[in-house]
Amino acid sequence: MRIYTDEIINAVCLHMAERRGVPPTDVEVQLSWEEQYGYTAEVWVKGRSQFLVEANLLEAIEQYLLKQYNLRKFRSQITLDADEEFWADIED
């Protein structure tokens, strides 16, 4: 299974909204990849900025898969990648 940029952003939005106790519409996400830091995201919740590292992104995707697809996957089964856009491959 593979999910793309939009679903990864949705996963992070839903995860951060739940953690912060705000509606998902109050969360903005920008994904990035840098050689020094790997996969990261800058997240804005009610105007406050926070950076997430790859482990945080994998946690958000893991929770998203469970809640949206009823799939119990572990972080070790999720691989992030990017070219023109971002995607996550999920092992069966």
SS summary, helix count: 2
Give the spatial strand order of the biggest sheet: 1-6-5
End-to-end separation in angstroms reads 7 Å
Q: Which overall shape is indicated by the principal axes computed on the Cα atoms?
A: globular
Helix percent band? 25-40%
Q: List low-pLDDT spans.
A: none
Rg of Cα set: 12 Å
InterPro entries: Uncharacterised_YxcD
Pfam families: DUF2653
Protein name: YxcD family protein
Organism: Paenibacillus artemisiicola
Task: Describe this protein's structure.
This protein is α+β, with helices and mostly antiparallel strands. The chain is 35% helix and 37% strand. It has two helices and six strands. The strands form two sheets. The chain has a three-stranded antiparallel sheet with strand order 1-6-5. Strand 2 and strand 3 form a beta hairpin. Helix 1 crosses helix 2. The longest helix is centred in the first third of the chain and has 16 residues. The protein is globular and about 35 Å long. The model has no long low-confidence stretch (mean pLDDT 96).
Structural topology:
Elements (H helix, E strand, L loop, with lengths): L1 E3 H16 L6 E8 L3 E8 L2 E5 L1 H16 L8 E5 L3 E5 L2
Antiparallel strand pairs: 1-6, 2-3, 3-4, 5-6
Helix pairs in contact: 1-2
Brief summary:
The chain is α+β, with helices and mostly antiparallel strands and about 90 residues long. It is built from 2 helices and 6 strands.
Essential attributes:
alpha+beta, three-stranded antiparallel β-sheet, 35% helix, 2 helices, single chain, globular, 92 residues
